[in-house]
User: What shape does this take?
Amino acid sequence: MADANDPVDWTGQKKISLALQGGGSHGAFTWGVLDYLLEDGRLDIEAITGTSAGAMNAVALADGYLEGGRAGARKCLAKFWRSISDAGAFSPVERKFLHTFFSSPLQSMATQWWTDFLTHYASPYDFNPLNINPLRDHLEKMVDFAKVRALTELKLFIVATNVQTGRIKIFEGPELAADHVMASACLPYLFQAVEIGGVSYWDGGYMGNPALFPLFYKTACPDIVIIQINPIERDEVPRSAHEIQDRLNEVTFNGALLGELRAIDFVNRLIDSGNLSRDGYMRPFVHRIGGGSLLAPFPASSKLDASWSFISKLHGFGREAAKQWLDETYDSIGREGTLNLRMAYS
Assistant: This one.
């Protein structure tokens, strides 16, 4: 994804594909990672697969890149996340109810209370019958989907879940509109299902967070970098209702990814043993930039926190993690994977 206006010679760039997890405002960590990788400039991005907030990061990056290269992509991502914060767009419950009844110091506590109440005792078809979604409004305002569809240098794969069949659905770059991204981000306890072509969709994280398989079949570069924001492991057993719900959220939204990592490891071992031909199968090199200990202290409920202070903090964490990963991993890209797949899924 080289910038034609960049005076630096990027002919030695290494190619990667990115796999971006979803996770509400925790996607600001991914923004920080992308911001650093684009600024560093040593990696050329061939494709992005994204779910929910990962899908939003993907289309914002693509929109900015077509017009302004790397600098344009960074600018568009920053503008997008600032608008998310200004509108409180990841906090539909807070936006609709809390500003009326609570002062600022109580909003965080009240957001958590209202979210718990509504998600356990009401349906979005009841408490939001008009299907008002401020996130959609800002997505359409901030992203020019005509430009995203026109971008041929970067392949995009957006993940959603078919409500009726339970199967995964991949929407690709040339067809993308706001509805496809909103389908990928449709949490069923907060929003009504998104209907596209007569089919209803929920959040893609249930079946692929993110989906890796499109990168095997429709890209040439073997290096896949997963930007993971949902912790896989926790040291302590959850005991409170909140802790249990948070852990269930993490387990659910990592399940499909762990299954794909297991399959990749299996195929890689077959290729390495000579039982599968390298001519017929890609042997991917898998890497991971994870939030790990940086994101672990924040509960799942904080994914609705759209405050600029919180988003800025996660953006900084993402830049920090990306720098450390690139410093440690750059020489391995194109030669070998740096994620121990067996340890990652077992």
